[in-house]
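FAQ: What does the model actually see?

It sees only this:
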Amino acid sequence: MKHLITALALGLATFTFADDAKLDVDGLSFAVPAGWKSVEPSSAMRKAVLQITVAGVDKPLEAIFFHFGGGDVDMNLQRWKGQLTGAVDTKTEEVEAGGKKITVFKGTGTYTDPFGGLGAQENFALIGALIPMEGSGPVVIKLAGPKEATLGLLDALKKLATSPFAK
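And it is asked to produce this:
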């Protein structure tokens, strides 16, 4: 019984930590969705990486954070649209949070990541958020993967992107 209580307490502590987990990226504190895990970025270009395990997908998906001094929202949107070919369907929307207008992108088609080295990936989706920053380019969150799995994460991505401004 003592071991059961200890196991339950540890499980609840893990659950509470997941709900309260924060990720700091260039002055913004993001609330990490439950089940998303922060991992070490694989390159200096990446400010942070969150891995998401999705049932039916072989490898965890990754929400990758970038922040560069240049570029703007439109340049990033054009870059993302250019990474999709074939039967492409894209949509952008602006979400307001704490006085900031965050641009959310959703696109489907055949996806080619110029840095991924995987070649063209059919039936994929790319979702992302662009968060304006004073005096520099936006903080970028980008997530691409199999279409259904990725689109299923869109609401969580919106919540993640707006979390630094939630009251």
